[in-house]
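Amino acids appear as letters; backbone shape is given numerically. Here is one record.
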Amino acid sequence: MGRLVCVALFCAFIVLPHGASGGSILLSQGTAQSPVDSLIGVSVAADQLTGVHGYSVTVSYDPARLRCVRAVKRTYLSGQTLFFATIDSIAGTVRIDEAILGTGAQSGSGTMALIEFRGRQPGVTSLSFTGADVRDAANQSITVTTAGSILTITGTADVRGGQDVPSRFELGQNYPNPCNPSTVIPYTLPVAGHVAMDILSITGEHVGTLVDDVQAAGYHAVQWDPSRATRMVSSGTYFCVMRAGDFRAMTKILVIK
């Protein structure tokens, strides 16, 4: 099995016009050791930012080397906020948007979000910011510097038929979430077998079936469009339930119309 080590940082300077200056946004993993296909957490961290009301950042990665599992909110922006994460597994980008509801701003340092990856293939790969827009409470831009990271993934990937194969069953977080108008649900199969995936309401009522078939081992994804469901789907919380052999998993989906 391989190990992953964060070996370097590289910096860029993103100038956003007509705003105040203030600090940096970093991709921070620290020193980690992880086999290929194990979970890798990368923090999007604020360093001495001033007066932040909201932000939008885009992180690029090599989809041949890394697979993005999900991006989740952390505690830098306190109180009630709107948080959105959009993963493009083809282009290899993760866009994160968050803003405080109402008035207010945050200064100082802290973790803004956590992006989780799994290493797919051994080699050296980089994570970088391709966009960073930070705003104050008056919607004025804040100039920031950014720092990405260079990762070295070592070891041997499980390859069958010329394609890398995951080592475990997994149901990933859908993206985008909230879902509007549709969303993609990723999942992995370490072996071929029958897969069933259903959408349930918060009360447990069956809303629709997304997958009911025998599928090959590998990385998969299915799209759910609530507007095409067999029964009416209103705004609210729903659950995606996956069953494959003895594996059972569930993830929460938010729908906004």
